[in-house]
Specification:
The structure is a single chain. The protein is an alpha/beta fold. Helix content is about 45%, strand content about 15%. It has 19 helices and 12 strands. The strands form 2 sheets. The protein has a 6-stranded mixed sheet with strand order 1-2-4-3-5-6, sandwiched between helices. A 6-stranded mixed sheet has the order 9-8-7-12-10-11. Helix 15 crosses helix 16. It starts with 13 loop residues before the first helix and ends with a helix.
Length: about 575
Amino acid sequence: MSSSKHFITDPKTLVKDSLHGLVLANPHLALDAAQKVVYPKDLAAVRQRQVTLFCGGGSGHEPAHAGFVGSGMLTASVSGHVFASPTSSQVLSCLRRVYSPEHGTLVVIKNYTGDVLNFGRAVERFKSECVNAGKPSPQVAMVVVDDDVGVVNPNDDDEGGVGRRGLAGTVLVYKIAGALAASGATLSAVKTMADYVISHTFTIGCALNAASVPGTGLPRSLGDDEMEIGMGIHNEPGFETKQVDPADVLVRNLVRHIVNSLPFKKAHQKPSGRVILLVNNLGATSNIEMGLVTKLAAEATREAGLDPVRVFSGTYMTGLAMPGISISLTVLPDNEQERDALLDLADQPAYCSGWINHAHAEDAGSTDDAAQGPTTHIKPAADAQWESVIASAYGNVVAEEPKVTHLDQVMGDGDCGHVLLSGATAIYEASKNTQLPLNDPPAALARISSIVEDAMGGTSGIIYCLFLDGLAQQLRRLDCNDSGSLTSKLWGQAMLGALDTLYQYTTARPGHRTLIDALQPFAATLASAGTLEQALEAACKGAEATAHMQAKRGRAVYVQQKESLADAGAVGLVSVLKGIVSALQ
């Protein structure tokens, strides 16, 4: 959920300070701090060679719009206060600075009343200035982006009205128009392209909560189990507040809402077609969730009969730190030549901090076979003793899991017991279903290692895997290919060799308060001709000793040790060893 805490010094200077930071991190940019205008340092040269474009609006939507200033996109941006339009004087200052007398200038804005009025007045003031100075009427055109289909005013009609809001589709407009301008096209051609993208781009957003405004806080808050469909980028209410849906249901419904909307149907009469898909992070959605939403959005677009030939995903236009996403679809021309031309513009690199340039590579053929590795043929086989050992170890882990979990909750992240039980359960199920080559100990251990990797994960899982891998190799080197040839001493020697394998990849050693403190004495006792009972006693003492050790490895290093408790990993390993020894007695 949204937090009301912010990294802030003074809300009044936040926008200007942020723009200073942007310019410092992007040496190709300059800042007119008084007017909050960002522009490239080579602006004089840009004006001489191409149509210039600029966009602006209230701050709080970063990287839009200042983050898109650079070659191939915007020539400048002008920023107002958070969620407030810049004044017409700010816009006029920007227009004066970027205007290209030879090629003209395109002004791109989102459809909000303050932006339309202030940018419109600035354009008219600039025209008056030029005419009153005896100059020709300037070549300035303005386009208004209204891609929102989440909230459509039913009172709007063909004669006008408030219209639809401008959302993340705005970025696609000036990405494509900016690439065309950079190619040397005329103002008329650039505006025509911008108009096409505007009239064929449709966006809907949703959020899990409103965004906190620095210096003001949360304007309203949704319940923990609520989401809002159609919430605007300034915290404007959407058209539906409902219980949070699973992501697949939510994304499918968002795409359906777009394709079933009246604006989409008016612009796209066919039941199929090619589209650009843009998935936008509204500010506080994690990257891993964005990956899921992008996958689901592409699938839902195909289910709707559309082909997403380009997929853009990232943080393009935010509502501060709003926990939400928006989905935009741009319908491409049916004419193949026109479609390819538009896609080529979308593909052109843009040299700015906000745009994510896509890397293109020719498909050189599949490497799937190489990724699979050598083919291994496992022949499952039953073995009563192995099955008894595995069942006993599993049963003991089940009994000891609450204790191990408790120990890890005190000193770690609390998952050690659950992870260990997950691994033990997977091995037990494989044994019960005769999926292990139990007549071949090295092969059985290698297979168990693979099962552990899939079932456990995390640091403890990979430590077990490395040890089991090393143990399987050691047994093969010792030519111990059947259970009958194995003695306790050979097991101990193989285990010490497996520890050497493990030590190549971890600095954990006896005395570091890890499961090594139980494993090493168990192996060493067996290798020196000790009995299983003696080895288990040594392992138990090693685990108990960890209660009085200073943690030197693992998460416990970062936690102040307040109680004399044994290491969870060592205690967990002992639970496995107790089960093994019990079955062999």
